[in-house]
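Box 3.1 A note on notation
Throughout this textbook, protein chains are presented in two layers. The first layer is the amino acid sequence; the second is a token string describing backbone geometry. Keep the layers aligned when reading.
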Amino acid sequence: MVEAPFLPSLRALVRCYQAFSTRSAAHLRTLGLTPPQFDIVATLGNTPGMTPKELGEKTLITKGTLTGVVDRLEEKGLIRRIPSALDGRSQIVQLTKKGERLFDKVFPAHVAYFSRAFADWKAEDYARIEAALHDLRAVFESSRIKQ
């Protein structure tokens, strides 16, 4: 059987994501967070908060997992749920002062951690990778593969 020509590219993408996830998770553990916890704190940082639905759409966390992670962050005093001023049936999830201090600590630390990996990269390296990833995303969002 002949291998589809795109499979090596997909394997490279998966391996890249796995390598990133492994390194990222290891560093986040040193900061006292899990990847989903960091994802929520980083997404809520520098915002007035958002609904759980918006938070789910902006993070890589599934709806079922999101509730548990938000519950645990709330138990730690890092986030709070407040009623929405626009819709009484909805809530806004936002960082507490303690959560804002954590964001101010861990977000720059995580950026600095990865900046070391890219120390030798030049503008054209970023442009090349971003263009390739943009093209790949367009393939996945294409109407040709929708059901």
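The longest strand covers residues 79-83. The two ends are 26 Å apart (CA to CA).
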